[in-house]
Fold this sequence. Notes:
Strand order of the largest sheet: 1-9-8-7-6-5-2
Number of strands: 24
Structural class: alpha+beta
Largest sheet: 7 strands, mixed
Distance between the termini: 50 Å
Number of helices: 35
Helix content: 40-55%
Amino acid sequence: MAASRVHSEWLSLVEISGPFLTLPVLTRAFPAGLEPTDRELVEELRVAYAEVTDDPTLSPRFIRWVLERLLDLPNAVLRHGAAVPGRLTHRVSEYAVELRPDYAVIDPDADAPEPRARLLVAEWPWGIPLDERPFGSPWAATPTDRMEELCRATGVRLGLVTNGETWTLLDAPAGGARGTATWDAELWLEERSTLDAFTTLLGGRRFFSVGEPETLEALLAESANAEAEVTDQLGQQVRRAVELLIDAWSRVNRERHGQLFGPLTHAEVYEGAVTVLMRLVFLLCAEERGLFVLGDPLYDSSYAVSTLRAQLEEEANTYGEDVLERHSGAWHRLLATFRMVHAGAQHENLSLPAYGGSLFDPDRFGWIEGRHPSDPPGALAAAPVPVDDRTVLHVLDALQVLRFRRRGDTDEARHVSFRTLDVEQIGHVYEGLLDQGAVAVDDVVLGLSGKKEPELRLEEIEAHAAQGSGALVSWLVEQTGLSAKAVAKALEPGATSEERTRLASACDNEHTLVERITPYLRLLRRDLRGLPRVWLPGSIVMTRAGDRRSSGTYYTPKALAEEMVRHALEPLVYQPGPAEGANPEDWKLQPSAELLDLRICDMAMGSGAFLVAACRYLAARVLEAWSAEGLSAGDPVGPPGGETVPLPGEETDQEILALRLVADRCLYGVDRNSMAVEMAKLSLWLVTLAKDRPFSFLDHALRAGDSLLGVTSLEQIEYLHFDPTKGVKLHGGTLFDPATVVRPLLGHALRLRRRIESFLVLDVADAEAKRALFAQARKALDQIAVIANVVVGAALSTATQAEAQLEGRLLAIAPEVRAALDPGRRPGDQSARIEDLRLRAEYWLDEGRPPMAPDRVCFHWPLEFPEVFVDRERPGFDAVVGNPPFLVGKRI
């Protein structure tokens, strides 16, 4: 059997979480596969395991036998009990817990003053789960979490945690995310490859008889680099999948003479395609994690995303890919699955609860379902936009199989495990889509290869070609980033018949166009189907719309987010704690009600990496607080002052409940890119998703807008000036009585938002109730938001002028503002005046905006989050988390 197949087999049988050894690294390090475990040792294992399963009290003896005999770790390197050096002990003072390994594997270097520790081993009783909090412990950390804490505190990268039944190898690299691989001892005897992998990787020879580059630590470090390669490659393939889906829609739009995209903006088309890919990734994650009914015959055959690619591949292998272009059943199946996830299904043969949420809402992009923009929400559509099965196959292939180009033009295909992908990795993949956009083209456009991957009009290329080959090569070098030699070679004639056939397919078989493009054919990059990148007139082209750096979007590694969040929140969750200068052993955890009353914000959240880290950290503290308060299964828990639910009995269910409470109550985020807001929701949904529970309602707390552009106090509205003290002088006081205009509307909105926070989302009806309350709250403050826009627009449009210009604008508009908010006016007249003010504010906000800059969307903090800025003794957030203000070059 090929080495890659051997390694793929045992990797599939081991439970992996986070970064671990990758297939390319394993194949390189072990080209002949795994070293077979000695037959006599296997027989000893069979006897020893039978004994310990009959009498679990023998677990300590069994663990020692595994370490000494199975892994061949002699007494010279394996320290036990009191022989473990004291420097490998760590005290977690705030919980009065001392962490000390039961065993330590030490380098046999007698001359070193402190020989290096290579592996720490923690032994737990038989039957104690390694991924759940130990019963009765005030610290929410699992045995695996505790080993990570110990490894990081002592600087030892590798830890092994075991209860005799399961064996979890932990990798905790300095400054990096942790990874784990868990072996089942019972499986060692049934699936020998798992035993061979365990002994090969953790045996004494791997620590002490190979060169430094071949040690387990080095292989894991090499794999970490490959893991980054996985994330980057998946990001590239997701972008190409979005591009392919937009191409498919563009073909339909051309066939319908522009009627499909007629009423839509290019941004809506692009956002629709990105949303489809987000839905697919969510479903792949949920199915692989056992949250959906994957394994049910009806679901697998008719609805599952995980199984669809294999079904399409089988059809393509039998009849050829060209046949797939004539059918669109796979696309209709996906749409049916999307609708079922949103609305649920209750049938005698298949049952799925409604998950709701904006991600799968069929009304959000009704045109994909075949609806006209004028159709009411929920209207039935008989003819969804068709997408051929070949396109669906390649979109799914891009998500589920990574394809790397290696040296010698060899391809490597690697299946993606969405079960082991971190939420942060998925977020990073989608953040790469934030600097992309879509534009319509009226001419033939070619997508060229090279570092810059430009999209160029065919007429423009031909115009430069008319100036001579030298001029064309020079221009193409500048446009593509390729070398002159590479460009000249690509322009040499000699296209094969197969290449011309593929080009003809890309050109809708317009032979004149094929002849025009053929001289440049080998410069063109290929789409996921292998066709040259050619866009015909009327197509929508996905192209770079900006720079992630200019949009403020940066990839945040999980380890960085967790570290920053911990330091930001520790002073809040412990009182006394670090803020009071107390010693860690004297820290006191706040009650759960106080923890769930915290308000934490990321003002430029991107895909939500810091919010995810805050959710995990705060939920762990809530679990500890429940334990400290003596709560047990069935006791009521819930948000302060709100409805309660019984505390579940299972540890994992308690953790999910804590995560959902924190997400519902404590987390806020803002981003000026509306797609980033949806990505942050996706990240938090993946973290808080529970089987048979709908998505948490997050629309009221994760908002789109420019966090640096807006009012920060109600006085700025009431006195119609960014500086309220100047507004008093300018207008002679307030423009209207706050007690009869602004405050009543705000009070109404506050009551509605308090109700949103007062109950958990247990079913889709709860989510819909929250959505209705949120809509009412938004409507109540709509008029006030218009006045706030007027204040900001007036200030921004006169920012480079004398202050008299600002005062003149505000004085001129003041009577209109006063009249528009006069409660004695007829509703129709009031609405018309508000609309006039809305248009005036939009005009002022747009004044001076650079042509390619994004629209200015104000974000008024007291109106968006009144429960934070108005309804608290100490207005504002308790903590702000997020990326620090990075500078360029050496000043980072």
